[in-house]
Amino acid sequence: MIKSLVDEIALWLRQQGIAEQLTDTIASILLFAIFIILSGLTYFIARKILLSIIIRATRKSETQWDDVLLEKKFFGYLANLIPAYFIYIITPLVFENYPKTISSLHIILSISMVVFVILAINAFLNSIAVIYQDFSVAKSKPIKGYVQIVKILVVFIGSIIILANLFGKNPLGLIGGLGAFSAVLMLVFKDPILGFAGGIQLSVNKMLVPGDWISLPKHDIDGTVIDIALTTVKVQNFDKTISTIPTYSLITESFKNWKGMEESGGRRIKRSINLDMKSIKFCTPSMLEKFSKIEHVGEYVENRQKELEQYNLDRNIDDSVLVNGRRQTNIGVFRAYLMGYLRQLSDVHDEMPFLVRQLQPSEKGIPIEIVCFSKLMDWTQFENLQSDIFDHILAIIPEFDLRIFQNRTGEEV
Question: Which residues, at least 6 apart from 284, have a Cβ–Cβ distance to it below 8 Å?
Fold first, then answer.
């Protein structure tokens, strides 16, 4: 039928006075143009009518996957294949006597269809990544890196097929010939390969997932992981800046993941205050009377004093000399007060490690260190609690006849 159409058009052209040697060529071109118009109509039908039907169907559907496929233009890319394939089939029939023209048009159409297939597959992979985010397992096992490596493979294979069409080679033979360029390929794809290997280790060993709080002092990074891609990891720091680091850096370098702290339900407070060693002394009766009236330590002072007096009495110790026997000190009472004060705070864990201790004295005084855990995990709330605790401690130190160590200023000399 197409052959007869070409002949009819050629006959009509001869009747119009066109040279006979040109009529077949012009007839084939005109018929091909007609078929391009027809393919445009098929594209319009596929794009406008069929897509509108698919859109209505997806909106009525209760499942999410078809909506995501539509949003990522998966069906649109498939619709582009219909006119390209239609022209691909018609070309040999229209240009039957022009094999070079057929070959050239087939190469162009084949490349176009390969590109549309690549775009459709990428849209499908993007849809899978979006749908996967709704599953609970996505928080602990992200697949973005795997999706990206599949995309790279798809583009690589598609590029091989395009090159094979351009040069008229077998794709498998072309892939085999790439062995000579393996060193170049390794250099070009070094980051994706290292990133893919790093991403697998991060996932398998459960080292990192989006939402984790990590710290990398070497890179001045301290914040929340917001994205784990094939070659990079994005971290939003607490100052709202975004840091991007190579995925494999998290394997080759050490970093701190605060996830364990967050899951434990307690955030550690560890800070010390330096006291002037010259202010440390034995407690006098007047001091003990004063301390016994202080909340959080009064009962401790009375019980402790009875225990020490009984100890000295049982051993007939002459307590008129201060160095004889056992006595309470103001720093000891102060430590006991801190224990009582911290335990009564509702935002401090009393079931997790809890310690008030002395550290090694130095030329800057004797440090009293507090180690406990806050129930408040939020950074702002945690810092407020810590500040409130040490505001109180700094204010009550003089009540125990102690002084904070502080280098002299010009006004004090």
Answer: none
